[in-house]
Amino acid sequence: MTSIQFVGSTSLALVSSGDKTVRLYNVDNAQQQRAFGGGSDFMYAAASTPDGKVALGGGQDSVLRVWNEENGQELRKFEPPPVVPPPQQAAK
């Protein structure tokens, strides 16, 4: 596990890990409620809004993903900016 956050004041916890997935667990019965996919590499962090409607996760692939926490659907992803090569200097 790389991050754990409780969802508001509920017994649900949003967990990120190195296996490309963010998961929502009920800590009362240790059951997985939902998995949020789409990650292509190690997931470093995840966070939830206090009302439990939106989950976010980011990892090694440099993409921030936003999911509907109630059904697991990916709402949006923010890709890193493109790499622009530095300008080349003219030979002297």
Chain-wise SSE layout:
Elements: E1 3-6, E2 12-16, E3 22-26, E4 31-36, E5 43-48, E6 54-59, E7 64-68, E8 74-78
Antiparallel strand pairs: 1-2, 2-3, 3-4, 5-6, 6-7, 7-8
Helix content: under 10%
| SS content category | mainly beta
What radius of gyration results from the CA coordinates? Answer: 17 Å
Quaternary state reads single chain
- Beta-strand percent range: over 45%
- Separation of the first and last Cα atoms: 53 Å
Number of strands: 8
Spans where pLDDT lies below 50 across 5 or more residues: none
The H/E string reads EEEEEEEE
Strand arrangement in the largest pleated sheet: 1-2-3-4
Shape: elongated
Tally of individual helices = 0
The average pLDDT value, as a whole number, equals: 93
Summarize the structure.
The chain is mostly beta strands and 92 residues long.
Structure report:
The chain is mainly beta and 92 residues long. It is built from no helices and eight strands. Strands 1-2-3-4 form a four-stranded antiparallel β-sheet, with no helix packed on it. The protein is elongated. 21% of the residues are buried.
Please name the defining characteristics of this protein:
92 residues; mainly beta; four-stranded antiparallel beta sheet; 8 strands; 46% strand
